[in-house]
Specification:
This protein is α/β, with parallel strands linked by helices and about 210 residues long. The protein folds into two domains: about 160 residues, Ribosomal protein L4/L1 (Ribosomal Protein L4, Chain: A); about 40 residues, no CATH class. Helices cover about 35% and strands about 15% of the residues. The chain has a six-stranded mixed β-sheet with strand order 2-1-3-6-4-5, sandwiched between helices. Helix 5 links the parallel strand 4 and strand 5. Helix 4 packs across helix 5.
Amino acid sequence: MVAVTVYDLQGKKVREVEIDPKSIDKAVRRPLLKEALIAFNASQRQGTHKTKTRSEVAGGSQKPWRQKGTGRARQGTTRAPQWVGGGRAHGPRPRDYSYSLPKKQRALARRSSIRYRLEQNQLVAVEGLESLDKPQTKTIAKLLKEIGLGGRGVLIVSEGHNANLHLSTRNIQKADVSERRSLNAGHVLRRPHLLFAADALDKLVEELSA
C-alpha cells in the first residue's frame, strides 16, 4: 500500500489515502508508456510546415537564355531548385503527424501511468479545489509552493469541468489542468507530478475498488 497525502487549500496536511498500486495495474508497463507518450507528442504537432516548389514561386516564366550556342548548361526557368530564389525540391509539406493507439492500450497506458506516479511518490491530493467560487491564481500558486510543487511541472486533475480552476492555473508556468474522465497517459507523463482534487481521487479509488 502507498499513502497519498491529502492537503487543504492552505497546503496543510489533513489526511492520507491508502492505495494499493496493484489495484491500478499489475505492473508499470514501460514499453507501453513510451509508445503512449510518443503518440501523445506526435498528436501535438501542428504539421503546418511548407516550402514552395518551382511551380509555386513567382516569376521565372521566361527562359533565361537560348537552348544552344551559349556554351552554358541548358536552363528553362530561373525558379528551378538549383537557382537562388528558386523553388525547393522535396521540401516539407503540410501533414498530420497524429496517430492513435488501440482503445484498450490507451486505457491500459492510463492506468499504468497513474501507478508509475504513485510508486514514484509523485501523486498528491488537495481538498477544496472544487469549491473555488472565482478565479484565484494567487491561491493556487501559493498552494503549489506550500506543498513543494512551486515552479515544478504538475498536472492538476479535477472530477468535472471546473472553469475557475482552469482560469486560476492558466498563468502558472508548467501547470496544466485536466478532467479525470479525459485523462490519458500522455497528460500524466508530460508533467512529473500529479495533483488530484480530493473528490477526483475518491472517485478513482472507488472505481479501482469496484
